[in-house]
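fwd from M.: "can u put these together and see what the complex looks like"

so here's what she sent:
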Amino acid sequence: MRIATYNVNGVNGRLPVLLRWLEETQPDVACLQELKAPEEKFPLQAINDAGYNAIWHGQKSWNGVAILARGMEIEERVRVLPGDPEDMHSRYIEAVVNGIIIGCLYLPNGNPVDTPKFDYKLKWFERLTNHAKKLLKEDLPVILTGDYNVMPTELDVYKPERWTNDALFRPETREAFHKLVSQGWTDAIRKLYPHEKIYTFWDYFRDAYGRDAGLRIDHFLLSPNIADRLKAAGVDRYVRGWEKSSDHGPVWIELKDK
DNA sequence: ATGCCGTGGAAACCACGA
């Protein structure tokens, strides 16, 4: 079973790229972030025609998350991260697919630091951590995946010294990620490739993709009761080189059948 | 390197992203 995550940076503007990627790689489940489309502008027909069911939580202009599944039912659990009724951003959606709880998330960017945006990021991280702790008590296995907007270690940044004061790399942010993972989650890419430079994002500027000036910010966290089913993981980085690509590349894991 | 590009939405510029 292949599960993928892809920050599409605009689901409608990205539709040809998204459909080509789905067709070529055939993930069983695909979690999408940054739909940048209101609820009613989600391209459901095109996605259905590609063979996928979908649930999504859209929002005008920004954010937006979706879970797609090929030939499988998607049983929605929640579409808002618990813990703050005031938070109107569509950044989290969770469902059961094929006996696995899948949480699809788009963690706030948080820049610039020393503004409410950074506080919002850390608070959101705390809410995610609280929710994750509850999920670990479920009988079903859990996968928390998406755009975490954090480079966990220096290995995950092309030039760490340039990012020390960035919201994606600040000590508070990395500590928050570490605290979450320490509950017992497995960072799938790092489990299989502990020492390799692997990126999931390349800026549109300055030919970042051509120079491989990237970041690893899209992650898969696996609960202990599914971690031993991890067979393979990787980044479809060639997709980043396509015309009209997102600035993120799709990330995927392959699970053994039970 | 403090947004150089890209997206969406509103209004021919702005917010936001990482």
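replying to her w this: Chain A is about 20% helix and 25% strand.
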